[in-house]
């Protein structure tokens, strides 16, 4: 059996070969038939025939047993605990199987599927690849699938639950939900169809969404499934690497060009459950998303999710306007492999982008860069990788390692007296002056209204300007993901509670720019006010007259800045005798 994968040579009662698990010139891999095991004295790999087939063939244990038994001419029968007919979801699987076959038949129909086949061929998808992935076509008709299903007596209510047919207030009767679309069946790891994705075919149909997907059902949970995983998992295990792309067509296109270890999320950001699914097959993941602003946000959000699961993500960067599908079709598989070989760690890619945008050109922008790097460091659950990240950021920014580590632990170990406070009340009316934490909350509320407010805030203040540790955490999260509309899984629970309260706040902010400017000014004024207080303490403690005079001058300048930002903040301070005014 092992001889199928390596060239074995007789060595006494044993066999030897160059190890298939690492590069070597002198054979150190031995197979001992009498004892039924193999051992490499170079890399340490060892095991029996089943573990070898699992490792090299990318199979799980049951599949390895079946493979070995088949080679030996032994039939392996599985003893099922429950009969298939007892499965309550059996009717749902049967309906999906019928729909897949029906969609596939429409694609291969000489007349009905002509335009769809032409489109797929134009995208480099040959008929055998379309057949392999079970691709189909939903004709632009209102009840073609429904009528075909009715002839077979399929349950219409279950078809509606599965998202194959739909209803509306205007429609008199149920209609086919997928119309005029290329159909991508979505399989679970068992190979059974659990849902569908449909890409609109007509480019002139601007009113229709580009992609339409099955809803959540008892058998389909999109956050727990990766498209293509039923085909890719063995290859991922063999290659010890997963390629994660953005959508259905990327998966099929790459597979058509020889890249088998590829999968995609299902219309949403990569979820923790999908990341955990990948951990069963590999520790290394390459992210092949678009390189535009939206693609970068998705890349780094996915990177943090993968890091939290203990995986090691790297980023593949394409030229502007290109993606893995266009690259592999226009330049070929070898060109894509070159891009894969140039993939860099997700933190290194972040640093690279910050360098390109001159974030290390000044103290203020370096501080903002640190704010953007901290979430990725914090997400790394692998302690060794996290330690490497801290060292890299410390070296790049000049911030001491101890300072970075304290920053990482700041929220995690916030004072217990604060950890169980309820979220603050909704912000006061924009016409009233709000307190310090009120200003912080008001600014965060504005930042959730749109990415443009995040960009403005990023240029004016940093996370360190926030006094409340939980608002500081939310601010950092929004800097990292301007369109964030739910707490990340790695966020401190109390900060997440605060964030949810902000997101659910029904207040409509009038005079947005005025509110934004007032909040920023108040926060900046409070920062300066804290510095003024510190200077005053130093004035009172020093005996050096020259130092005292220099401190007084600095206090005067800061007071002028505070007065320009928010004069009312000075009302609570009475001038100290002898201070210049």
CATH topology of the largest domain: DNAb Helicase, Chain A
Write the CATH architecture name of the largest domain: Orthogonal Bundle
Mean pLDDT: 83
Shape type: globular
- The oligomeric state is single chain
**Biggest sheet, spatial arrangement of strands:** 1-2-3-4-5
N- to C-terminal distance? 91 Å
Please report the first level of CATH classification, the CATH class of the largest domain: Mainly Alpha
Uncertain runs are 412-435, 573-581
Number of domains: 5
* Proportion of beta-strand residues: 5-15%
Residues in helices, as a percent range: 40-55%
Helix count? Answer: 24
User: What's the Cα radius of gyration?
Assistant: 30 Å
**Strands, total number:** 16
Note the main sheet.
Answer: 5 strands, antiparallel
Secondary-structure-based class equals: alpha+beta
Written description of the protein model:
The protein is an alpha+beta fold and 581 residues long. It has five domains: 2-71, Zinc finger, CHC2-typedomain (DNA Primase, Chain A), CATH 3.90.580; 87-220, DNA primase DNAg catalytic core, N-terminal domain, CATH 3.90.980; 229-342, 3-Layer(aba) Sandwich (Dna Topoisomerase Vi A Subunit, Chain: A, domain 2), CATH 3.40.1360.10; 352-410, no CATH class; 411-581, DNAb Helicase, Chain A (Orthogonal Bundle). 48% of the residues lie in helices and 10% in strands. The protein contains 24 helices and 16 strands. Strands 1-2-3-4-5 form a five-stranded antiparallel sheet, covered by helices on one side. A five-stranded mixed sheet has the order 13-12-14-15-16. Strand 14, helix 11 and strand 15 form a beta-alpha-beta unit. Helix 9 (248-256) packs parallel to helix 12 and helix 21 (469-480) packs across helix 22 (493-503). The chain is globular. Mean pLDDT is 83; it is low at 412-435 and 573-581.
């Amino acid at each position: 059996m092992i001889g199928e994968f390596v060239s074995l040579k007789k060595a006494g009662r044993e066999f030897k070969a160059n190890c298939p698990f690492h590069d070597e010139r002198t054979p150190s891999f031995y197979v001992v038939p009498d004892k039924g095991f193999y051992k490499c004295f170079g890399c340490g790999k060892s095991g029996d025939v089943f573990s070898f087939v699992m490792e090299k063939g990318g199979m799980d244990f049951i599949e390895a047993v079946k493979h070995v038994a088949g080679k030996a001419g032994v039939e392996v029968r599985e003893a099922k605990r429950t009969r298939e007919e007892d499965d309550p979801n059996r009717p749902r699987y049967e309906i999906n199987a019928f729909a897949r076959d029906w969609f596939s038949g429409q694609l291969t129909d000489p007349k009905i599927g002509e335009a769809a086949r032409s489109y797929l061929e134009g995208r480099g998808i040959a008929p055998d690849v379309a057949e392999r992935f079970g691709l189909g076509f939903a004709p632009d008709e209102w009840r073609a699938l429904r009528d075909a299903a009715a002839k077979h007596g399929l349950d219409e209510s279950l078809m509606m639950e599965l998202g194959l047919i739909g209803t509306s207030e205007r429609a008199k009767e149920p209609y086919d939900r997928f119309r005029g679309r290329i159909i991508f069946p979505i399989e679970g790891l068992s190979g059974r169809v659990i849902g569908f994705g449909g890409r609109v075919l007509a480019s002139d149909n601007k009113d229709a969404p580009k992609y339409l997907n099955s809803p959540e059902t008892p058998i389909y949970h999109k956050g727990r499934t990766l498209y293509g995983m039923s085909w890719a998992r063995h290859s991922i295990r063999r290659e010890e690497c997963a390629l994660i792309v953005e959508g259905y067509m990327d998966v099929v296109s790459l597979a058509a060009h020889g890249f088998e270890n590829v999968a995609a999320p299902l219309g949403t950001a990569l979820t923790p459950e999908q990341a955990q699914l990948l951990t069963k097959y590999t520790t290394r993941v390459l992210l092949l998303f678009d390189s535009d602003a939206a693609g970068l946000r998705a890349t780094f959000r996915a990177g943090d999710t993968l890091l939290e699961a203990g995986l090691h993500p790297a980023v593949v960067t394409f030229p502007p306007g290109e993606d893995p599908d266009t690259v592999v079709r226009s330049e070929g598989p070898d060109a894509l492999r070159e891009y894969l070989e140039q993939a860099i760690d997700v933190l290194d890619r972040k640093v690279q982008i910050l360098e390109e945008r001159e974030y290390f050109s000044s103290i203020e922008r370096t501080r903002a860069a640190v704010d953007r790097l901290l979430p990725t460091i914090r997400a790394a659950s692998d302690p060794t990788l996290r330690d490497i990240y801290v060292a890299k950021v410390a070296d790049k920014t000049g911030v001491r390692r101890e300072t970075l580590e304290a920053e990482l632990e700041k929220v995690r170990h916030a004072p217990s007296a604060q950890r169980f406070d309820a979220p603050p009340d909704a912000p006061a009316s924009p016409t009233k002056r709000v307190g310090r934490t009120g200003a912080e909350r008001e600014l965060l509320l504005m930042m959730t209204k749109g990415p443009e407010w995040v960009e403005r805030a990023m240029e004016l203040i940093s996370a360190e300007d926030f006094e409340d540790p939980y608002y500081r955490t939310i601010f950092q999260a929004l800097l990292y993901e301007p369109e964030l509309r739910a707490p990340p899984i790695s966020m401190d629970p109390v900060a997440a509670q605060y964030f949810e309260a902000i997101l659910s706040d029904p207040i409509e902010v009038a005079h947005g720019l005025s509110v934004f400017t007032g909040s920023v000014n108040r926060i900046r004024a409070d920062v300066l006010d804290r510095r003024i207080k510190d200077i005053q303490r130093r004035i009172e403690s020093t005996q050096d007259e020259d130092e005292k005079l220099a401190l007084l001058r600095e206090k005067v300048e800061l007071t002028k800045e505070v007065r320009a930002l928010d004069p009312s903040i000075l009302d609570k301070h009475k001038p100290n005798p002898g201070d210049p005014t």
